[in-house]
From TrEMBL:
Record pathway: Cofactor biosynthesis; pyridoxine 5'-phosphate biosynthesis; pyridoxine 5'-phosphate from D-erythrose 4-phosphate: step 5/5
Top-rank taxon: Bacteria
Site (Transition state stabilizer): 161
Gene3D superfamilies: Aldolase class I
Protein family membership: Belongs to the PNP synthase family.
Taxonomic lineage of the native organism: Bacteria, Pseudomonadati, Pseudomonadota, Alphaproteobacteria, Caulobacterales
Binding site for 1-deoxy-D-xylulose 5-phosphate: 16-17, 52, 57, 110
UniProt enzyme class: transferase
Protein name (database record): Pyridoxine 5'-phosphate synthase
Length: 258
């Protein structure tokens, strides 16, 4: 049986790609803050936004408005950011509930793989200390590898977010054995992290077809989902997309608890 804290899994909604659509025309519409308002009204537990160095979607002004909205609604803003002096400075000024440190390369279409905490230990540790001192919970977006998880714990992160993209890609491609092997690594990584006292989140590439096996990992406290929900919203609306995703998440936990 699952303990009470394991029976629920939170849903953070990433609204980056509302800004992508806005920026494609160089206009002021659609507004990411409106998507955030709809997401929270539909039952999202928090909002995630990634301020990239090249500002390809979310802007500095968006972060200011989203910070204000989340404070007023009493909901967390998860500020995804690269480990750079510029981004740390912005986070220190905005003081989001959570700061999720992610790898970032200018030429990538989306985040590719997890942060290499082992190789970048000193810089990540310094950023983590500054962000924690300012009152933000620090999360590291990493692959489910023991060395990365243990290094995240040593440097003082409170949360890790496991990169689920490889699992989702394999599952959608029908690569059953590969998907099963990656899922086992995610399960083992979540177990190790929880035993070290880290809160465990997961995200990247999750859709309706892949969410239940991930949500069924009992140590995972939160899923952060964006691209699929924004894409699905084109056809059914954002509230309906969120309602269906949450229903699948809850069904996975209910099956686990039975």
């Amino acid at each position: 049986m699952l303990s009470e804290h394991q029976t629920n899994v939170r849903l953070g909604v990433n609204i980056d790609h509302v800004a992508t659509i806005r920026n494609a025309r160089g206009s002021s519409y659609p507004e990411p803050v409106r998507a955030a308002e709809l997401a929270l009204a539909a039952g999202a537990d928090g909002i995630t936004a990634h301020l990239r160095e090249d500002r390809r979607h979310i802007s500095d002004a968006d972060i200011a408005v989203l910070t204000d909205l989340c404070l007023k609604r009493g909901k967390p803003l998860n500020f995804e950011m690269a480990v750079t002096d510029e981004m740390v400075g912005i986070a220190l000024q905005a003081r989001p509930h959570a700061a999720c440190l992610v790898p970032e390369r200018r030429e990538e279409v989306t985040t590719e793989g997890g942060l290499d905490v082992v190789r970048g230990y000193d810089a990540i540790a310094a950023a983590t200390a500054r962000l924690r001192h300012a009152g933000s919970r620090v999360s590291l977006f990493i692959d489910a590898e023991a060395g990365q998880i243990e290094a995240s714990h040593r440097l003082g992160a409170q949360v890790i977010e496991l990169h689920t993209g490889a699992y989702c890609d394999a599952a959608r491609a029908g690569e059953v054995d590969r998907a099963a092997a990656i899922l086992r690594r995610l399960q083992d990584g979540a177990d190790l992290a929880a035993n070290l006292g880290l809160e465990v989140h997961a995200g990247h590439g999750i859709d309706y077809a892949t969410v239940k096996p991930i949500a069924a990992i009992p140590q995972i406290a939160e899923l952060n989902i964006g691209h699929f929900l924004i894409g699905e919203a084109i056809f059914v609306g954002l509230p309906e997309a969120i309602h269906r995703m949450r229903a699948l998440m809850e069904a996975a936990r209910a099956e686990l608890a039975a």
